[in-house]
Design a protein that fits this description.
Elements (H helix, E strand, L loop, with lengths): L3 E5 L11 H14 L6 E4 L2 E4 L3 E2 L10 E7 L2 E3 L1 H4 L2 E2 L1 E6 L12 H5 L14 E8 L4 H10 L7 E9 L11 H4 L5 E8 L6 H9 L7 E5 L3 E3 L3 H10 L8 E4 L3 E2 L10 E7 L2 E2 L2 E2 L2 E6 L6 E2 L7 E5 L2 H4 L13 H11 L3 E4 L5 E3 L17 H15 L11 H5 L2 H4 L13 H8 L9 H10 L9 H5 L7
Parallel strand pairs: 9-10, 9-12, 10-11, 14-22, 15-23
Antiparallel strand pairs: 1-8, 1-11, 2-3, 4-7, 5-6, 5-8, 12-21, 13-23, 14-21, 16-19, 17-18, 20-22
């Protein structure tokens, strides 16, 4: 059960397993003792980047962990040999039992990003969750190779793999021992995986104040200058609140190289899973002059301002959930005041189907009770009836400690209600029908911009009657 977290000093100064006080004390020691040459540090949105850090001392990684520092290609102790290094690895000792997940409170201590006026100066945190994926390393390569400003990208990768299987390693060594690329890696045994929601939660803990947050899967290719493109699209959103989220099921790899020919739009529900809708269906539309408003979310492409991950933190208490992840996150974002849009051009392309590779959906044997608590939590949050099961009232949710844990922190927002979300989406959760959804969202907002402002009225904005 060895777990490795790699922290790039250009982005983060705190090991995941360290307490805040220990991190601050260790940092004070570093700043007091280090010989600095070309230092790169972050403080909220204030950035000063001039190169590498030459260490004379490095912080420890916490109880039950062994510190290994890589300087170039040779593992050694940086503070002993006074070598220049850019990464620190905190490796959990094999005999150490898995501990409770980090609470995520560190995200709340980060200052709100101050967005640079020049889009080319803005930074992007990219969240990538992988499960036994032989394509992840190439995805990370392509992420940086196709970016217009690769130095402003910070990739946080959760790599769940079988130890010893080199083809499942998620990040090539040259991206870990580099000051050119900012990569944070959480390397974990596949046997400890708990589903996509858990992995995305772990990835979100690596966010360190970047201007944007971009969540995706681990088997993608990218359009050239994708970073500049997606920022430009986000800037064109017409959300009255200014809280725009671009999200969609990306086009497949067979469309790679044709960035603007067709674009997907999430406007249909495929079927009902237990008490809630999803997965969804994307209709392919001709490119439009603006992002299209939509009611749904695709977890393989979620792009928004960095403060999104603090206002709507990823829920670690939905282990083994697959269907249910997207509708829950969509409703949570929407009730916090975020508006969802499909991108107007394609910036990444997804490999659908993983021939011969194990999938996380089949990785929960003997976890039925845990999964049932996750489902109970979702049903309570969404307030949807299930014809085959009793309603999950507050009393019923409270009776299940796993379903109720941290429900206020990871629950719905207060800007809009869940009932308003269902009305906005035009889904009939009682009758379990979605014909009105498809007719409205695929037709009214399936053409070219400018779009009707009717959705803004339905979303609760004033002045659009």
């Amino acid at each position: 059960k060895a777990t490795v977290s790699v922290l790039n000093w250009n982005q983060g100064l705190e090991c995941p397993s360290m307490s805040r006080r220990a991190a601050l004390l260790a940092l004070a020691g570093v700043l007091g003792a280090m010989v600095v040459h070309n230092v790169a540090f972050w403080r909220g949105s204030e950035r000063r980047e001039e190169g590498r850090v030459c260490c004379t001392e490095v912080p420890t990684c916490g109880a039950g962990s062994t510190q290994v520092t890589e300087c170039g290609s040779e593992p050694d102790r940086c503070y002993q040999q006074r070598r220049c290094c850019s990464t620190i690895l905190c490796k959990t000792d094999p005999e150490e039992k898995a501990t409770a997940p980090p609470r995520g409170d560190a995200l709340n201590r980060l200052p709100m990003p101050s967005m640079p006026a020049d889009p080319s100066q803005r930074t992007i945190f990219v969240s990538i969750a992988a499960f036994r994926d032989t394509e992840c390393a190439q995805t990370v390569r392509d992420l940086f190779a196709t970016a217009k400003h690769p130095g402003r990208i910070h990739a946080g990768v959760v790599c769940q793999r079988v130890p010893g299987k080199d083809d499942e390693k998620c990040v090539a060594p040259e991206y870990l021992n580099s000051t050119q690329f900012k990569v944070t890696l959480h390397d974990a045994a596949a046997s400890d995986a708990k589903g996509p929601t858990w992995a995305r939660y772990l990835a979100a803990q690596m966010y360190s104040g970047e201007d944007y947050f971009f969540m995706m899967d681990s088997h993608n290719k990218f359009a050239d200058a994708w970073d500049e493109n997606v920022i430009s699209q986000h800037d064109t959103c017409d959300s009255p609140s200014g809280k725009c989220v671009l999200t969609v099921y990306p086009m497949g790899l067979d469309s790679h190289g044709r960035a603007g020919q067709w674009t997907p739009h999430l406007c249909r529900n495929a079927h009902w899973t237990r008490a809630w809708p999803g997965p969804f269906l994307a209709t392919v539309k001709a490119p439009t002059g603006a992002p299209r408003p939509q009611p749904f979310l695709g977890a393989g492409f979620v792009f928004g301002a960095g403060h999104m991950v603090r206002e709507v933190p990823f829920d670690p208490h939905l282990p083994y959930v697959f269907h249910g992840e997207e509708i829950t996150l969509a409703a949570r974002l929407w009730t916090h005041g975020y508006d969802l849009y499909s991108p107007m051009t394609n910036v990444l392309f997804h490999h659908y189907g993983r021939e011969g590779r194990p999938a996380m959906r089949g990785h929960a044997p003997g976890k039925e009770d845990v999964l049932e608590s996750s489902y109970r939590r979702i049903q309570y949050l969404l307030q949807t009836p299930d014809p085959a099961r009793p309603a999950v009232t507050e009393e019923a949710a409270r009776a299940d400690p796993k379903a109720w844990e941290d429900i206020e922190k990871y629950g719905m927002g207060t800007v809009r209600t869940v009932a308003q979300y269902w009305a906005f989406s035009r889904l009939d959760v009682k009758g379990r029908t979605h014909e009105a959804t498809e007719k409205y969202w695929c037709t009214t907002y399936g053409g070219r911009a400018p779009f009707s402002d009717e959705w803004k009225r339905d979303a609760g904005y004033k002045g659009f009657d």
